[in-house]
Amino acid sequence: MNVKELETTARALVAPGKGILAADESHGTIEKRFAAIGLANTEDHRRAYRDMLFTTKGFGEHVSGVILFDETIHQKSLAHVPFPEVLAKAGSIPGIKVDTGAVPMAGSPEEKVTQGLDGLRERLAKYRQLGARFAKWRAVITIGNTLPTLPNIRENAILLARYAALCQEQDIVPIVEPEVLMDADNTIQRCHQVTEQTLHEVFDALYDHCVVLEGLLLKPNMVVAGKKCPAQATPELVAELTLQCFRRTVPCAVPGIVFLSGGQSAAQATHHLSLMNAQGPLPWKLSFSYGRALQDEALKAWGGKPENVAKAQKVFAARARLNGLATKGKYEPKMEQDLVHA
Length: 342
Ligand code: 13P
Description:
Layout: H1 3-13, E1 19-23, H2 27-35, H3 43-54, H4 59-62, E2 63-68, H5 70-74, H6 83-89, E3 93-97, E4 101-105, E5 108-115, H7 120-129, E6 134-141, H8 150-169, E7 173-180, H9 188-208, E8 217-218, H10 235-249, E9 256-259, H11 266-277, E10 285-290, H12 292-302, H13 309-326, H14 337-340
Parallel strand pairs: 1-2, 1-10, 2-3, 3-6, 6-7, 7-8, 8-9, 9-10
Antiparallel strand pairs: 4-5
Helix pairs in contact: 8-9, 9-10, 10-11, 11-12, 11-13, 12-13
């Protein structure tokens, strides 16, 4: 294990003004995204879409790295260049999703456990040869009346730790993603409690599995009220409770926390991140690893049509720039105008 290299990669991913684009939608997930714009889920469409995003002018300025799906890391761009090479040339680090999805947990089927450890050592070695320098594994924690259960949190934490140890063995930075879902009707306080407990168990398992904290990034949810909760929190309360939760649970040896957007709107996700960074200095870099909050507006502007590529790229670049500002605490909601005029 080359700890120096791991640390250098992790720090580059959270360099000031930069964050990660999660573009690792599985075939099932991208099908849902394409359905929203009435586009068939074909390999050519997936290639054209990712090509549109990755060839945006100035891509690497605010996008430090991209999480790819297995198909994409093997694919070539429309100009016949392997996608990892396209990204590296743009100054962005290629990454790869390595879990194979979440399935119902035996004994508590309303909760999920993530699969993908079998053969992971060999897959990681291959992905590294293809250019990947970081990876992602997503665990899902479900809030409900009697959920989550402790066994579910612990099982997911152990899986995350075993994945992270395997990544570091291959000099690949693990992004450790325990996502507490925001779909239910729970209060923000309940999200705080579950997120705190989850992170506590995750860092306990990482310690037990000898994972080097300096060579990983944490990808968590923000602390928010569930989508169906009638009492939605103000952006200021989200920032305050999220920071409180992470100060309690995340050691300062971790170089960075890169949030998922999880169903927040693009503007909300940018605003929350900026409010937190405005309260710095903080023990870790706080940045983004957004999927929907970086892509939704550009996907809509693109609509699957080659003639819309330039417009969609402008929209993508504008959102990436706003999130870059948010990593410095310098975004303001009035800047949303930039998107209207993109
Ligand atoms: P969202 O930002 O759309 O939640 O996606 C991030 C991600 O990679 C979830 O695993």
